[in-house]
Amino acid sequence: MVDGNTLLYATVGDPVAQIRAPQVMGAVFEKLAVNGVWVPMHVDQAGLLAVLQGLRTVRNFRAITVTIPHKQTVVAMLDRLSVAAQASGGVNMVRLDNDGKLFGDMVDGSGFVRGLELHGHHVQGAAVWLIGLGGGGSAIAAALAEARVARLYLTEMNRERATAVFERLGHYYPKVPIEIVNQPVGRVDFAINATPSGLKPGDPLPFDPAILSRETVICDIIMKPKETALIRAAESRGMRVHHGHHMLDSQIPMYLRFVNIPFSSDESILEIARQA
Amino acid sequence: MVDGNTLLYATVGDPVAQIRAPQVMGAVFEKLAVNGVWVPMHVDQAGLLAVLQGLRTVRNFRAITVTIPHKQTVVAMLDRLSVAAQASGGVNMVRLDNDGKLFGDMVDGSGFVRGLELHGHHVQGAAVWLIGLGGGGSAIAAALAEARVARLYLTEMNRERATAVFERLGHYYPKVPIEIVNQPVGRVDFAINATPSGLKPGDPLPFDPAILSRETVICDIIMKPKETALIRAAESRGMRVHHGHHMLDSQIPMYLRFVNIPFSSDESILEIARQA
After folding, report:
1. How far is A99 from chain B (nearest CA, A)?
2. Does A71 qualify as catalytic in the annotation?
């Protein structure tokens, strides 16, 4: 029940009808007895700065998550950025700090890595092939480098985008071996689709899992449909798969940590989210 | 339950801890099956303009109510004003219209008049004495003139404020006889306290009901305490009284009308609000 003491959280995007944060975080807040409400804010590119400047002045406002198409644009509007945000060139969480400064972080990538961990897959020391370097892919690339993969193969059709990511990662993670490739030259432990290919029925496979060892874990970041053609092709070859929804699910405890709301364990939060 | 399609409403003020709109409107929305949430926004004078400019760009934002200390300041920040807002010099509701313009209205006064009506008291053709011309008093003065009282006696210690209200009312309601007085010279049907005197224990009476006919209805706009010293003095003389909370209660159906949310009757809405 919202009252005069309720703290405000929001997801800012265009569109917002599809977002699940209000329901999920509403359930989490209720369970944790946090007097907070998570609302959708439907804002287009032209309005984004005005909304941030407005929220700065609302004393009971705490934080927003930022979704499509604002994750890159919002970067220039903030006062401080995490290393993950700088390394990935995007932001998906913004917090109003006590000194009135807006702090941006990016947890799409660390959410993806955390999702793997929660399912027993560890990327540290692994060889990873990542296909697609849009917003999600860039964030995942930075998080994989941060998690100290042994080798990172990147595939991206847009040369300019590939070069930008390659240079940014080289700057922040100079010790991680990174190659831009059409397909990996060696064995990989993980292959990750971060392209939109698979969203629509009839989309071509982003890559053919048959070119990889059967030991490779095949990951997709597409959430809808849950069972993409890539996931089905991998499963029919008897390969292990990792579904798209884990990336977002695993971020829920990160949102709470970001705004200093205490909780007992990631698993307890994920359980609340699953039931919401 | 808030979701990605929820419409946003807020009360903007400083402080906001005491406001009841989130609970009351939450209950009303639930009963009317409106997918909306009413949140508090704690905003000081310096932040007010930025918040309004931000809300302008939020497509699922619909309206705010404005409370202390912003009811006068906000006037200059809007695109359009109702006659009630212009005549009272204040605004307590702001709506974002389809053309992106902010429209301000003031229903403190009409809420007060409506509250009287709902209790069988009609001010049209009556002689009314109003004491106190701050934000609430100015709005009530304009609403009484709009409701075509036969005679309006105004009492206000601050001469400048009294003159400003007198001139504004003369401009918008030239046919209503208005006098600035220390106390009314003739019989009055209603005497209304719109001063803060009575908020604190030991406050002097804003006026002595004993100087008035026993037929006069004694009204207070103070909500807390409900039974002010004035109300008690009037009751002990056997006079009819009208409590402060009716002014705000009666505005709830007005908020709904303001944002085009249909409902069956004012009474049905007030009943939901009473139970919230």
Report:
1. 15
2. yes
Query: How many angstroms separate the CA atoms of A185 and A127, rounded?
Result: 11
Interface residue of A58, A62, A73, A102 to substitute, partner B, most B CBs within 10 Å: A58
Question: Which chain A residues contact residue B53 at CB under 8 A?
Answer: 50, 53-54
Size of interface A-B (CB pairs under 8 A): 127
Strand bridging mode A80-81 / A93-96: unpaired
Please tell me which residue of chain B has the smallest CA distance to A48. Answer: B57
β-pairing, B190-193 vs B127-131, is: parallel
* Residue B276 confidence (pLDDT): 87
Residue-wise pLDDT tens digits, A81-116 = 999 999 999 999 999 999 999 999 999 999 999 999
Q: Which of A11, A12, A24, A51 to mutate to test the interface with B (most CBs of B within 10 A)?
A: A51
Q: What is the reported pTM?
A: 0.91
ipTM value: 0.91
Instruction: Indicate yes or no: CB of A47 within 8 angstroms of CB of B56.
Output: yes
Backbone angles phi, psi at B179, to 5 degrees: -135, 140
Q: Which amino acid is at A58?
A: V
DSSP B99: T
Contact A93, A110 (CB under 8 A): no
**B180/B164 Cα distance (integer angstroms):** 11
Pair of tokens at residue B16: 């906001």
CB-based burial, A122-137: b 16+ in 10 Å, e otherwise: ebeebbbbbbbbbbbb
Domains, chain A, ordered by start: 7-107+251-275 (3.40.50.10860), 109-247 (3.40.50.720)
